[in-house]
Write a structure and sequence with these properties.
Helices cover 38% and strands 16% of the residues. It is globular.
Amino acid sequence: MSALNRLKIFGGVIALGLLSTPLASHALVSSTEQGDTLKELIEVIEERHYASRRYDDVLAAQHFVAYLDALDPQRMFFDAADIAAFTPWQLELDNVGRRGDLDPAFAMFNRYHEKLRSRLEEIIATLPETLASFDYELNEYLVIDHSTMPWAPNAEELDERWRKRLKNQVLSLKLADKPAEEIPKTLERRYNNQLNRLDQYNSQDVFQIYANTLAEQYDPHTNYFSPRRAENFDINMSLSFEGIGAMLQIDDEYAKVSRLIPAGPADKQGELRPSDLIIGVGQGESGAIEDVVGWRLDEIVDLIRGPRDTLVRLEVIPGKGKTDQRRLVPIRRNEVKLEEQAAQKEIIEFTDEADQKRRIGVIDIPAFYIDFDAYRRGDKNYRSTTRDVQKLIDELVGEGVEGLVIDLRDKGGGYLPEANHLTGLFIEYGPTVQIRSAESRVWRDGKRRRSSYYEGPLAVMINRLSASASEIFAGAIQDYGRGIVVGEQSFGKGTVQSLVPLQEGQLKITESKFYRISGGSTQHRGVIPDIDYPSLFDPKEIGESALDNALAWDQIAPARFNRYHDYGAILPMLTTLHEKRAANDPDYLYLEDQVSIAQEARSIIALPLQESGRLALRDNQESKALAIENKRRVAKGLAPLESLGGGDEEGDASEESDHAQELKAEQPTGEIADADQDVTPDVLLVETGRILVDAITLRPDTSLAGREPAGASVNNLQ
């Protein structure tokens, strides 16, 4: 899915009339202020963006395509005749934009708006006879993603695409056990809701899409925020908003979960996952589930947000490939608090191959944070990532751990100076990151005071959602040879943005780029772990490399620094030992099998519209899921299951899966030392602890044996 789809303010549904016809009474027009804002945006972005690129004919052509894709990402409204009518503007958007002329943008939008209205009215008017005409024995398929297909050559092809789309919606509802008499009512309500919302769109919505598609031609992190979106951005950057703690974006006609805020209500609840699609929202324990397919994103967000300690229920389906598997996720809204975002510790215990008990400390860092208010007040006890981690290190070393794991999985970044300060706990002296400006000036940040704090064995865990500041820290630890990095290739977000106020709204613009001290950028490529773990994330869908117009990876001259250890000498043995354990660990093999099934599901490019074929597809997915679960159970000496169980059609979110309960009861690969913590053992976390123990054995010079905890005071941190 293109990064531009995040800009759509509704789920792929609006349309317009012919340019040769008079504009309808509800046609939208631009304001003088919006024209002035566009001129200002072009001026600022040309002057300040890292890429130093002019808005010329080449970029105008890209902007033209991007704007059409943002309006009609699935090729469901415009046909070849529409595109031909728009094409004369393709190389003119830069010229008219410099004049503040938004007529082309609004003409295309209004064409789209009218075509949507016409399509929705037609669907509603003919729904009973259309549903009656569907033949579910007919062997035909729906292409899941039309975005790479040509524009429809004519209206007849658009009709055919819509027929299959509607048939798929009916079939999905049937397979979700929706009563036959309720299906037409559900669809009629869904399309009437979309129709009723058409008149709610205003010129600010149009300008938001148009200006943002221009901004994102420079890179995916350069964005225009209308006044309303700017307000939401400010809320999302705060640690004190009330809601469920999830970031959403539009994916076709669905609201997709892009990420969860660490320590937020959704993250704690544990059932909502990135890439899930939200199809319904219900209030309280028993409020009716309101169908939100095709809604504006801001309206869905408003429905999900609410006062703290209130319940919202989300009806969700997985992302691509499993569109019939619905579940209900209840989440209690709350405030995301700084103390809940703070670093946390635990100790994992396991028995090694020599039958010896081993203890490894784990520090989970939700974000790179600092309590600015307390810091400005001069409070000596202000909270920050580095200060909190320092205290946790003291506690863990005092409790006799042999090594330390820093868990940065799913961590999207935060306050960059804290990434530098945190690295300073593990190195004596030196740079941690290089930053290059658009003018090619390079400056380095790092630790200036010579001191050491924690000198013991260290491992860092990352995954595909580890980004920005997390990548700076992991990359520095890897470059210094200070520890082992394990997990997945990280996100690859290696750019720095700043906010620029405009006449209307704000521009978030990329002005600098991060580089590791070894010279390579974290941009696009991210951090490559020393030892790989299986990943449920599709790198083609998640990560900087999956975003349109992402800046390229490159490198600059390395900084001067000294490596602590040459882990490269023992990595082959560490990898061999890891692979040997993994091959005999039922829980690790279960994870690999899950990855295989997820990859298979993502490979589905078309869904059968024949009921028997669709049932066969679903049964095949469910049987494979049952097979890998029973494979795991048998390997652990447990009785196989006849089915995976389930609940009602919406999913039973009140009960944990058998797998989750067993993990808690059996503690299969390690035990949580702190009995007060109700934590499900994490097979990858425990394996990281085992790898760290292997490293200690192979490199005894890294051991904590005989060392005193803590070397520097909190107040001496740089």
